[in-house]
Amino acid sequence: MARRFQVVLLIALALGVVGLASPALGADPASLVHIPKPSSVHTEPLHVPSKTLMGPGPSTAHPRVLQAAKLPLLGHLHGEFVKIMIEVQEQLRYAFQTTSKYVLAVSGTGHAAMEAAVANFVEPGDVVLVGVNGIWGERMADLVERYAGVVVRLEKPGGQVFHPDEVERELAANPEIGLVFLTHGESSTGTLQPIEGMGDACKRHGALFFLDTVCTLGCVPFNVDKHGVDITYSGSQKCLGAPPGASPLMVSSAAMAKLKQRKTKPFTYYFDLNLLGEYWGFEDNPRWYHHTGMVTNMYTLREALSILQDEGLAEAWTRHREAAERLWSGLERMGLELFVENPEDRLPTVTTVKVPEGVNWKDVASHMMHKHKIEISGGLGPTAGKVFRIGIMGYNAGPQQVNRLLSALKEALDLYGQPKGEL
Ligand SMILES: Cc1ncc(COP(=O)(O)O)c(C=O)c1O
Fold it and tell me: What is the pLDDT of residue 17?
């Protein structure tokens, strides 16, 4: 009898049925698969076309940055990876021009860093002055209200910027304002917000200065410490020319002190800066797991910041200015009109140019994409339907790229309407 049992057991093992019949493993795994394989998806290695991204973002990544994306994964607390994080923090201090200890890259795109800033620095009932001259001020006002802050709106039509006196007047009239938000590069309207004197105005009234630098960091002259900025966030996929997903955030010690005085914990776990500071070593502490670091995005951000470091910040600012001026004069020679009237208020990184009468911007943009693989985009928020938005950022901020864009745009405009100006 025992011998017969042994034989049956051996046969069962040989057929591999013991595992399948075992209650621990449950029923045949295939019986759980009810959704068929997606027949519309071809599983050969992914291929995407190569395009020149000259819209408001993302911008074309530098080939060296894309090489870094191929590096093997490290654990997010491995010594080699922590070293990369420390280097990124040093490089961000250079890009922001700050000595602040509180510098990091938030996992996620610019919105993640934007939301992280609001979630940490706005407590219920806090009053925030928000400069609204395009979609980013609108979005900030929305975010502040979602975190139960009280918004005081300072409004300007799209295409115009704020003066420190206007900010100071609001601060004097509303002494309860604790935070002042402005957008350095308003990518929906194409304005460059002058920030000279803004930080001082905020300090005179005991408010923190909070600035969006998503479309300016690395491309436009900017010095966090000199301009008295307390909180600023940026993006990786615009001026820095890295893939989206790791967003720089900088906080001054004054802002950090405010965070420590909060009456309530921030209503976010993922973006809680006290916890993130433990992972980023804010107090030179041993690093702790908070969430899995975005390993590959950190490589690419570091590579992009290394390219900036090699070039030099002042040199990168000049290159972007020269590329923008080349673009603006080319557009004007073609008879096109720039949306931002005052040349000093024009953002070098995202240019808004009026769509000529009788031209449908989509025809032009789609011709440029299909024939030349160049992306430009239409307006957003207050400029929707009225302008083209052309991004000259990072890898694309050079004379050849600008010339290529201008001739493709001229060809499209000649096809789809006016003008017929010279190039
Ligand atoms: C000025 C500005 N702020 C914030 C954002 C949001 O960044 P993201 O799209 O990376 O979330 C953008 C994106 O275009 C932007 O241009």
Answer: 46
Find how far residue 417's CA is from the centre of its chain: 34
C-alpha 185 – ligand 1 centre gap (Å):
10
- Predicted pLDDT at 291: 96
Output helix, strand, coil percentages for the chain, rounded to the nearest 5: 45, 15, 45
pLDDT classification of 325: cutoffs 50, 70, 90: very high
Q: Of ligand 1's atoms, which has the minimum distance to the CA of residue 112?
A: 11
pLDDT at 417: 82
Return mean pLDDT, the chain: 94
63-310, what's its fold? Answer: Aspartate Aminotransferase; domain 2 (3.40.640)
Residue with tokens 């290394």: 306
Q: Is 93 annotated as a binding residue?
A: no
CA of 182 to the centre of ligand 1 (A): 13
Of 54, 111, 234, 240, the residue with max ligand 1 atoms within 8 A of its CB, to mutate for a pocket test, comes to 111
**pLDDT value of position 422:** 65
Sorted by where each begins, the domain ranges of the chain are 63-310, 312-416
Tell the CATH topology of 312-416. Aspartate Aminotransferase, domain 1 (3.90.1150)
Distance from the alpha carbon of residue 111 to the mean position of ligand 1, in angstroms = 6
